[in-house]
């Protein structure tokens, strides 16, 4: 239910958000029991992630959507412009409010969805928790509304000091704009005597920044962050992509196009002795900000992860529980059991979420995942290690 190597990360979140921590534990326990006892059926999810828009105002190098080989670059303009109406989102929230899932707004860049404040207002008005995942560029103009609306958590990407962050994000002044946004958020919370939204930073290990990761912790402290998670870079080889799609096509008559955005011709150019030294240095740092690496690989696994396209984890169970715990709803209304596998179990424009969640199509997907435990790309996905 919670992998042993993720226990510290889970405890930290529970301490900073005790109400949510207890609710998440109960939800995960129930979903885990349905995973063990039933063949594809699941209790309602802990989290529903609303993919508000494909649009993004940055072109981050390592991003699978809009990065160097990002999958969104291949999508037609009509698809990229798609988004659910406010009425459709309100109907969804009315459908799920009885089991009170955590609602996460992401994209693309969710703050480019003009009516995002209305969505937050509707989520909070129905007694649900609301998170926003953002690159921070538009935060300064939106910080006051986030505090007033009661956003619970802001997850923000920060990859290094100014020059490193801007290079990885593909645009000048990105660091300064984000930093100004979080300073304003911090000041407004202090002025209004509020603790939320909590600020959690997400940082990706990459060729450009791995030697300077400790600096991210100090910047996180200045921003008033609650926690920082260093994510290992997601990448796959062409052979893995081909093998995966051949298998996925056999089971579901479709391919996982979104994983094309993570293909690399060569392994990352990272000096592993240096990276491991930086990881050790960060874990030994005294900081008010809770720090974790995710997945929390052993040193041996870190070496294996970056030195082979055929990596297999040793310290985690090789199975995925995410389809029992999380649902993803995309701008066209499609409901996905996994963010990047491009498998749609239904569409909220045609059926209610509650009907889709345990539909025959959804249950069949879970059955296959349970029997196979993983597809070729899964070991590179963070959800594989989450539960």
Describe this structure in words.
The protein is 42% helix and 13% strand. 42% of the residues are buried. A ten-stranded mixed sheet has the order 7-6-5-4-3-2-1-8-9-10, with helices on both faces. With 387 residues, the chain is α/β, with parallel strands linked by helices. The chain contains 15 helices and ten strands. The model has no long low-confidence stretch (mean pLDDT 94). β2, α5 and β3 form a beta-alpha-beta unit. The chain has one domain: TIM Barrel, CATH 3.20.20.70.
State the gist of this model.
With 387 residues, the chain is of the alpha/beta class.
Count of structural domains = 1
Order of helices and strands: HHEHHEHEHEHHEHEHHEHHEEEHH
Radius of gyration: 20 Å
Beta-strand residue fraction: 5-15%
The level-1 CATH class: Alpha Beta
Number of helices: 15
Q: What would you call the shape?
A: globular
Query: What is the overall pLDDT average?
Result: 94
- Roughly what percent helix? 40-55%
CATH topology, which one?
TIM Barrel
Count every beta strand, where a strand is a DSSP E run of 2 or more residues: 10
What's the CATH architecture? Answer: Alpha-Beta Barrel
Distance between the termini: 5 Å
Say which CATH homologous superfamily is assigned: Aldolase class I
Structural class: alpha/beta
Spans of at least 5 consecutive residues with low confidence = none
Q: What summary fits the major beta sheet? A: 10 strands, mixed
